[in-house]
Amino acid sequence: MIITTTSTLEGRPVRDYLGLVGGEVIVGANVVKDVLASISDFFGGRSGAYESSIQEARAQAMQEMEVSARRLGADAILAVDFDYEVIGKQGSMLMVCVCGTAVKLS
């Protein structure tokens, strides 16, 4: 499955637009809270533990999106967009959303 942030694929015209597909994942309770509590440390350097949690959440959201596209018979997902949102009481969780347009290529 081709997944891209672009709205077209060079040399691969779209035959059918099958609809919007997406995936959402919420990263558990203390990840964002800990990041926000130690914001000065966070900007002073990289936090491998938090980065890997966010990367895993993004990968899971993309996987959900791809499953939805396959159910529609898609060959590709175009115009993919990622969104990250702090949610929950006192910003205790991070929601990762990804969406795009499922298409059948010619």
TrEMBL record:
Pfam families: YbjQ_1. Belongs to the UPF0145 family. It comes from Sphingomonas humi. SUPFAM superfamilies: YbjQ-like. This is UPF0145 protein GCM10022211_08700.
